Amino acid sequence: MTLTTLDRAHRFRSLHDPRHPLLLSTVWDVASALVAQDAGAPALATTSAGVAWSRGLPDGDHLGRAEALAVVAAVVGAVQVPVSADLEGGYAETAAGVSETVRGVVQAGAVGINLEDGARSPEETGRRVAAARVAADDEGVPLFVNARCDVYLRGLVEPGACLVETVRRATRYVDAGADGIFVPGVVDPETIAALAASLPVPLNVMVGPGAPAPTELSGLGVARASLGSAVAQAAYTAVRRATVDLLDGGTYDSLTGALGYAEVDGLLHAAAAHREGRTERPGGGR
């Protein structure tokens, strides 16, 4: 059975449970999304960095709205699980422009977004979050608006003031309509627990080497953990290693254990068949 956008939206919200945190792999195109879904991902998130890199652009608001929405629509159309879209600052110069972006995201079928503050003021980010909330509500979809606070990631204040500043910003974003708060750059368990205890909405952290293991996150109060741009970085690392092995060592060792051609190509064939209404279905996990 194919789920509607509303079905997926309710499903995605229900997955934000600190007792069983939502673990999100990140994707940047249809193939990466299908591979992650086949591995058993209950939901997916796009990585703005990975999407930008795959199109020859640096991360950081260089991607255009139309191209970003095209990627979201392609990913949503290929998979059966809920998809959250990383929108950087909203791919717009103003809060009104963010509304247009969010309407496009909802019409593409995504059921969650990330909006980051970065170098923007908390006041401006609050306006963008509010615009996103209103636009989604106008479309009739309970979009999960995840506001990203970059205080730790960018070192926006002195280290001793990061927790207080993050909570201050998060409070503003929640008041503006955010459903969750994403705090990348934090791996210390004590700090993560303090953040979770201080927020009235689900806490999302970015995980990877050095971060608490997935099995530890529930005890810290985390409701959602994502891999950020690390998956795309690992994919590009595989390209570098394979090239170095070939040119410098004359070996193919780095290709050992790679997904088979038939496996990857089969996922794309199955997704195409599903879109065309044939009986062949995407793989459901190994």
UniProtKB/TrEMBL annotation:
<dbReference type="InterPro" id="IPR040442">
    <property type="entry name" value="Pyrv_kinase-like_dom_sf"/>
</dbReference>
<dbReference type="GO" id="GO:0003824">
    <property type="term" value="F:catalytic activity"/>
</dbReference>
<protein>
    <submittedName>
        <fullName>PEP phosphonomutase-like enzyme</fullName>
    </submittedName>
</protein>
<dbReference type="Pfam" id="PF13714">
    <property type="entry name" value="PEP_mutase"/>
</dbReference>
<dbReference type="InterPro" id="IPR015813">
    <property type="entry name" value="Pyrv/PenolPyrv_kinase-like_dom"/>
</dbReference>
<dbReference type="InterPro" id="IPR039556">
    <property type="entry name" value="ICL/PEPM"/>
</dbReference>
